[in-house]
Write a structure and sequence with these properties.
The protein is an alpha+beta fold. It has a single domain, classed as endopeptidase domain like (from Nostoc punctiforme) (endopeptidase fold (from Nostoc punctiforme)), CATH 3.90.1720.10. The protein contains seven helices and eight strands; from the N terminus they run αβαβββαβααβαβαβ. Strands 4-3-2-1-5-8 form a six-stranded antiparallel β-sheet. A hairpin with a 2-residue loop joins strand 3 and strand 4. Helix 4 packs across helix 5. It holds the Pfam family Peptidase_C92. This is Permuted papain-like amidase enzyme, YaeF/YiiX, C92 family.
C-alpha cells in the first residue's frame, strides 16, 4: 500500500530521509507551537499536488509539523509514514535540501499549549492515507487543523477547502491519483473538504518568521 506525506499529499518518506542531507534551524528561534513547512521531493504525487495547491512565497510545501520543546530537546509532532509521531528536529530537517519555513500562530501561548496537548494525545494514531477529514486518522495538515480547532474552543482556526485531484483547467484526474486510490481500493475524494500545508502557510493567522 502506498503511504505518504500529506494531502497535499504524500508518498514515501523513509527513502527520502536516507538519501538527502538537511539543514540547520536556529533552535533558539523556535518556540513551542511553531509550524514548520517542508517541500519534500516525493515524486509524481508531490508534482501533482504542487500543480493544484499554492504555498507562501511561491513555494511548494508538501508537509507540515508542530514544534514541541521538551527540556532542551526540540521535537516535531507530525503525521507521517504510518502514524502520528514525535520526530527529533534533526531528523525532520534532514529530509529535504529545500529551505524550511517557520510559521508562528498569532494566538496566545495558552491556546498554543492546548494545541500541543491535543497533538501529543494523538501520538500513535494511524496515518490518514485516504485524506478524508474526521475519520479518526490524520494526515499532516489535518492534525494541525484539529489541534488548533480544539485549542480555539472547538472553533476552526484554519480553513477547510474542497480538495481536487484533477489537472488544472480540465475534468481529468491526474493518472498518479487514479493509481493511488485504486491501490487503496477506494474512490478519489474529489470535492471533499480538506486542508494542506500550502493553505496553512498562506493563512493570516500565522506569521512567517524567515521569509
Amino acid at each position: 500500500m502506498i503511504r505518504g506525506i500529506c494531502f497535499t499529499i504524500v508518498f514515501l518518506l523513509t527513502v527520502i530521509c536516507s538519501i538527502v542531507s538537511g539543514q540547520t534551524l536556529d533552535k533558539i528561534q523556535l518556540k513551542n507551537g511553531d509550524l514548520l513547512f517542508e517541500d519534500l521531493d516525493c515524486g509524481p504525487l508531490c508534482d501533482a499536488i504542487e500543480q493544484v495547491t499554492q504555498s507562501y512565497g511561491g513555494n511548494h510545501f508538501s508537509h507540515i509539523g508542530l514544534v514541541y520543546i521538551k527540556a532542551d530537546s526540540v521535537f516535531i509532532i507530525e503525521a507521517i509514514g504510518a502514524k502520528v509521531q514525535l520526530t527529533p528536529l534533526e531528523r525532520f530537517t534532514g529530509r529535504t535540501t529545500h529551505k524550511i519555513y517557520i510559521g508562528r500562530p498569532k494566538i496566545s501561548q495558552q491556546v498554543i499549549d492546548k494545541a500541543l496537548t491535543f497533538s501529543v494525545s494523538k501520538l500513535g494514531v494511524e496515518y490518514d492515507d485516504v485524506f478524508l477529514y474526521n475519520n479518526e486518522k490524520y494526515y499532516c495538515s489535518e492534525l494541525i487543523y484539529d489541534a488548533f480547532k480544539y485549542a480555539n474552543h472547538n472553533k476552526p482556526f484554519f480553513k477547510l477547502e474542497p480538495m481536487t485531484f484533477k489537472r488544472p483547467g480540465s475534468n481529468e484526474f491526474f493518472p498518479v491519483w487514479i493509481d493511488y486510490y485504486k491501490d487503496l481500493g477506494t474512490e478519489i475524494p474529489e470535492g471533499k473538504l480538506g486542508i494542506n500545508p500550502g493553505g496553512i502557510s498562506r493563512s493570516n493567522k500565522i506569521e512567517i518568521l524567515n521569509p
